[in-house]
Amino acid sequence: MAKPKKISLTIDDTLVEVDAGTTIMHAAEQLGIRIPRLCYHPDLSLAGSCRVCIVDVKGMGYYMAACSSEVWEGMVVETNSPEIRQARRDIVELLLDNHPMDCQTCERDGHCELQNLAYSLGVRARHFEGRRKRFPIELSSDSVVRDSEKCVLCGRCVRVCAEIQGVHNLSQHGRGFNTVVAPAHMKNMDDSVCIQCGQCINVCPTAAFTEKRSAGPVWDALANPEMHVVVQTAPSIRAAIGEGFGLPPGTPATAQMITALRRLGFDRVFDTDFGADLTIIEEAHEFLTRLKGGPLPMITSCSPGWISFLEKFYPELIPHASTCRSPMSMLSVLAKTYYAEKAGLDPRKIFMVAVMPCVAKKFEARRPEHFLELPTLSKGEGLGVRVPATDAVLTTRELIWMIKCYGIDFVNLPPGEFDSPLGTASGAGDIFGATGGVMEATLRAASELITGKPADRLDYTEVRNVEGLRETYVAIGQHNIHVAVANGLTNAKIILDRVKAGEQFHVIEVMACPGGCVGGGGQPYPPQGVKVLDPDLLRRRASALYSIDSEKKLRKSYDNPAIDEVYESFLGGPGTDKAHKLLHTHYHAREPRGIK
Amino acid sequence: MTTCTDNWEQVEAAAKTVLGERLAEYIRRATEKPHPESQLIAVLHEVQSEFGYLAEAHLDAVAQLMQVPAAKVAGVASFYHFFRLKPRGKFMINVCLGTACYVKGAERVAQKITEELGITWGETSKDGVFTLEGSRCLGTCGLAPVVMIDDEIHGEVTPDQVPALLEKYLKKARE
């Protein structure tokens, strides 16, 4: 490839040389000048709609947007002058004029880019008093809440939904003052092709998209002495929760997290990783069955956003999705059956809370397939009661808030340990939270199952840190297994279309969110200056999980004694009827069908 | 088009029922052109000229037949002033509100029309005969105030003339 042409220009009296095609914004960054911005996001297409990044280019009669203007030879740019700062301040003031400005009661208080911009640009008074747009809050979805009054029309959500997720659920409807970001025909999120992944929440600079809150019923259960409140935490919570308390991204915080949960009043703290180990064993068995009789490929099913996408966009591939319940669902089911039995508890009195990096899990928990039929009580009460296996799903953000609300000094907490019997987990369960982790854990188990010998290999680094999409061949016994890992559904589409075209794959891991669960729609808003979806942030969270895995003695799901125990004393072994009834599920095509 | 949904035959048949064979054929030919995605506005124009407006069902059918996400189709249709998302009447009344017409009393004429029909700007009368719209300038300022009904220009209209003018078209509608 030919070297790109170099362009010389002057930015704020400093000469700089950059590749042709560079934008003013990026050229300025090379000089350590960070031009303020709002609608810009490095991983999304350019919108140039907010005008916050305007700069003065000599000879032009108007201010240019630095994010979307390419440099030219001899260009003279001024990024800072009293006039430009005033113009930027005016732009942000005008955005605020049409904004609720209820920062103190807003979900995003302290993490709002508009708030930060207003502060840093020096907005200290309201000079414009105009009409306010008024829209009701849209609460139809189990996962995502839409509040158009807080929308600044930057279009990041529209772009992430289309470009990263390939869902195209959102667009700007109408024009001018009346513009609204909404699903087609301004339908409710619940009646749309939304797959509940929550990436719109992550990229929103304000709080126009937020998660559906679930803390209320959890506080109630914790305060109710009759309820036995059980909590489980997903792998990626421990890798990200510290960020909420000022710890650098990638700091594992399992031990403090457990203590914090106990202080909040949870009666038992279980580990979703246990559910992950169980998922792996069931999935490895399922894979072996499929290896003999199909249909292949088998596609992982832990990510509820992906399952929603499958049901709306690729229902013809439903037979390929593993029937295994997600680790969350498996653990919840066992908590209300196996654990209840063991501890002599009435499952009706168990309130099961799951802390997830995900807003789609809130939707998954409400799916009728994930409800549990409880046995009739001896007194004949509760005949045929169906209860949700998981009663409430909290996001990492919600848990961080609850811990703060309770006044717990998270960083200085003494370490805690998960409770038995659903708290012992192998490292294979931990890495579920990172893209490629389910694949790696499956390969560890499948190689033992297929060869009948203890695995000589534990690390499958070729499926780690997948930026979007990767495929490879892995030799297991006499099989050459063709595997693919995809995160972000636009990447998944590429593989799925190849499967539809008849290409042979054995196992495909799909995670709806970029980077896998560590980049989920319920994860902490990144600290100021770090962009959500930033590959480096996601890698640091993932590396926390890989370090937890590598430091554990238990690294394979098959070696987990707690799993042996549950199979021996309760389920009767992997793939048995009981295991199938309790640990597997099914999917169905959903309306409205998406357009790919 | 490379990809389509699992129940494509059903979806395609339903879309054709909504739009009719002629439009379906028009869309098919549009999608075979070099940049099919740039044909969306042309297709929406064609659909509107057939039905007088763009209903949700029309937009969804266009989305399916062009395999363009419904949110995008709805976004485009709701952005442009020319596209109507509500049914329009048999006749389109356009009252010129340009400077000349305004000075000559277009406002009072419009007021009379809204009283007679019981509708305001952008609305359609209950019987489905008239839709009332305002325009900035129709370029016939010498005839101010001007009321255009479909393609016919009526000049120097006074509020008193409005009932008879409407009656003329009501009669046409009944024919």
Mean pLDDT of chain A: 94
CATH class of the largest domain in chain B: Alpha Beta
Output the strand order for the largest sheet of chain B.
Answer: 2-1-3-4
Low-confidence stretches of chain B: none
Instruction: Tell me what the CATH architecture of the largest domain in chain B is.
Output: 3-Layer(aba) Sandwich
Describe the strand arrangement of the main beta sheet of chain A, using strand numbers. Answer: 2-1-5-3-4
How far the N terminus sits from the C terminus of chain A, by CA atoms, comes to 33 Å
Number of helices of chain A: 19
Per DSSP E runs of 2 or more residues, the count of β-strands of chain B stands at: 4
Q: Major beta sheet of chain A, specifics?
A: 5 strands, mixed
Shape call of chain A: globular
Largest interface: A-B, 27 and 24 residues
Superfamily (CATH H level) name of the largest domain in chain B:
Glutaredoxin
CATH topology of the largest domain in chain A: Rossmann fold
Fraction of helical residues of chain A: 25-40%
Mean pLDDT of chain B: 92
Measured on Cα atoms, how large is the radius of gyration of chain B?
A: 20 Å
Q: Assign a percent range to the helix content of chain B.
A: 40-55%
* Biggest pleated sheet of chain B: 4 strands, mixed
Characterize the structure shown.
The complex is a heterodimer of chains A (596) and B (175). Chain A is of the alpha/beta class. Chain A has three domains: 6-80, Roll (Ubiquitin-like (UB roll)), CATH 3.10.20.740; 96-211, Alpha-Beta Plaits, CATH 3.30.70.20; 216-583, Rossmann fold (3-Layer(aba) Sandwich), CATH 3.40.50.1780. Chain A contains 19 helices and 19 strands. In chain A, the strands form six sheets. A five-stranded mixed sheet of chain A has the order 2-1-5-3-4. A four-stranded parallel sheet of chain A has the order 11-10-13-16, sandwiched between helices. In chain A, strand 1 and strand 2 form a beta hairpin. In chain A, helix 9 crosses helix 11 (327-343) and helix 9 crosses helix 15. The longest helix of chain A is centred in the middle third of the chain and has 22 residues, at 272-293. Chain A is globular. Chain B has 175 residues and is α+β, with helices and mostly antiparallel strands. Chain B has two domains: 8-79; 91-174, Glutaredoxin (3-Layer(aba) Sandwich). Chain B is elongated. The model of chain B has no long low-confidence stretch (mean pLDDT 92). Classes of the chains: A alpha/beta (596), B alpha+beta (175). The A-B interface holds A 162, 168-175, 183-186, 192-193, 313-316, 497, 500, 589, 592-596 and B 2-7, 11, 56, 59-60, 63-64, 67-75, 78-79, 81.
